[in-house]
Amino acid sequence: MRYLLAALSVFGVLQTTQVLAQNDPVVVELYTSQGCSSCPPADAMLHDLAKRDDVIALALHVDYWDYIGWKDSFGNPAFTQRQHAYARAANATSVYTPQMIINGVDHVVGSRPMQVMDALQAQKEAGSLFDVQLTRSDGGVAIAVAPGAGGDYAVQLVRYTPEATVAIRRGENAGRNISYANIVTSWDVIGRWDGRSPLAFEVPAEGDSPIVVILQRSTNGPIVGSGVLR
Q1: In the chain, N or C terminus with fewer CB closer than 10 Å?
Q2: By three-state DSSP, how is residue 143 classified?
Q3: Where does the sequence pass through the membrane (predicted)?
C-alpha cells in the first residue's frame, strides 16, 4: 500500500520542535533464518529485547539459506532485499545471518550480546528526531508526528506476530523446536514525508496484531522516529 502525503488532514494540535525525543524506542532488526545454525542464540536474545518497552525488536526472516535443506516458513524475499539494501548503503560486499541492524545505523553480529547492548545504548543516548504518536482507530491506525528537521523520510507500516514455535525437520537445525519472537509479517512503505509540515493521517490496519510505524531516511538510512501499539 502507498499513500501520498502531500495533503494531510491534521488532527489535534502539533507543536513544531527540533528537540530530540529521548523516550522513543530503538528499532532492532534481526536478520535470521530457520536454516542457520548460528541463529538460535540471536533468536533467543530477540525474545529478551522484545520484552523491553524502550526497544522495538523485529525478526526479519530471509530466504537465502533455504537451499541448504530447510525452507524458512517465515522467510520473505523482500526482507532479503532490505538487508541487501542496508549492505549497499554500508558499502558491504555481502550479507549474513544472524545480523542485527540497530536504528538503521549500527550493524552488529546478532549473537554477540555485548556489542548489541553497546550499540543499543549508543542509539538510546543519541535519541531520535521525531516523536511518533499512534492511536488505534476502527480498523486502522492514526499517525501523528510534529514537524521538525527537513529531509526525505519514508513512512513505513510494520506488522508482526509476537511469538511462534517451529519444529525444524531438516537442515542445520534439524530436530530442534525453536521459538521465535516478533516475526515480521509485512513491511510496507505507506508514503514519503519532508519533515517540515505536521504529519497526521490514518491508514488501514486490520486485525489485532501489533502495529509499528517507522520513519527512516530513504528506506535504508538512519531511523529517525518510531512508535508501536502492542
Answers
A1: N
A2: strand
A3: none
d(CA 33, CA 74) in angstroms, rounded, equals 8
Locate the DSSP E strands across the chain. 26-32, 55-61, 99-102, 106-109, 132-137, 140-145, 153-167, 177-193, 199-204, 211-217, 223-229
Distance CA 19, CA 30 (A): 29
Reported pTM: 0.91
**CA 170 – CA 42 distance, rounded (Å):** 20
Determine the longest span between alpha carbons in the chain, in angstroms.
55
Taking only the tens place, the pLDDT of each residue in 72-118 is 999 999 999 999 999 999 999 999 999 999 999 999 999 999 999 99
End-to-end alpha carbon distance in the chain: 21
Pick from 170, 178, 177: nearest CA to 47: 178
pLDDT value of position 138: 84
Q: DSSP letter at 68?
A: G
- C-alpha cell of 8? 494531510
**Lowest-pLDDT range, 19-23, 63-67, 136-140, 224-228?**
19-23
State the residue for C-alpha cell 542485527: 100
Average pLDDT over residues 198-225: 95
Residue 167 CA to residue 50 CA, distance in Å, equals 22
